[in-house]
Amino acid sequence: MREQQPGVTMYVDVQVIDINSCDPVKDMYIDLWHTNATGVYSGVVASTNGNSADKTNLQNTFLRGVTPTDEDGVAQMTSIFPGHYAGRTTHVHFIGNYGGTVLSNKTYSGGSVAHVGQFFFDQDLISSVEAVEPYSTNKQSTTLNSRDNIFKEASGNSYDPIFQYSLVGDTVEDGVFVWISVAVDMTAERDVTAVSTLTGSSAIATTGDTNTALSVTKLGGFAASLAVLAPMIFAIL
């Protein structure tokens, strides 16, 4: 998921619990994606996403990945702490897919999406990370958690969308371990639509909407780029 992106190493644990049975959910394919240290998504060419003249970014797949939960309902990934972009607080996107098929080329096809959401971070942790390079070079305006409308919505009804965390060493530069449990209604089916697909060596827009942040999931050279609410094909980490 990290590829070669510079930044504070972030070890991520996400546990999925069935809201109806309170049991861990095994074999849910967890799709996570977020921006790099300076607030840029891979797989997106848009005026609000870094250098819009760089059309090659549509082919990039950094900081996007999918992996299944284990018997304890836990999925683990290694990434970097996300940067921010104008109008949003620092966050990670999350889609939970289940019931699909793992194909011979290690892609994941079909299935149902039971959950779509975002995870957030403690404001003090965000401030600590953004004080170090390369985060400190990001000149985009910042938005606090308390000012972010999606954070406010996610925090309603006593929900807590903020990762718990622990520093790996003495400072944030040594890395951070973050974890969260999320309750999912496994009877739900969320409607999602892909806006573009990256297969083999080229990216193909499927809706013409290049202003939507994409989720790109991949392994072994195969990848699929997905809209914020839009998986079609998953490739497994």
TrEMBL record:
Superkingdom assignment: Eukaryota
One Pfam family hit: Dioxygenase_C
Name this polypeptide is given: Intradiol ring-cleavage dioxygenases domain-containing protein
InterPro entries per UniProt: Intradiol_dOase_C, Intradiol_dOase_core
Residue span, Intradiol ring-cleavage dioxygenases domain: 3-89
Transmembrane segments: 219-236
Molecular function terms from GO: ferric iron binding; oxidoreductase activity, acting on single donors with incorporation of molecular oxygen, incorporation of two atoms of oxygen
Keyword Transmembrane: yes
Cited SUPFAM superfamilies: Aromatic compound dioxygenase
Keywords tagged on the record: Membrane, Transmembrane, Transmembrane helix
